[in-house]
Amino acid sequence: MCSMLKLSYLMAIVPMAALLTASFFVLYALRKVEEKSLKAFGYVVVGFLWLAVLVVFSGAVYQIAHRSAVMKCPMMQQKMKMDHLSSALHKNNPALIPAPEKLSLSKDLERSACAKCQASNKGVVVKSE
Question: Residue 15's closest CA among 59, 67, 64, 68?
Answer without folding.
Answer: 59
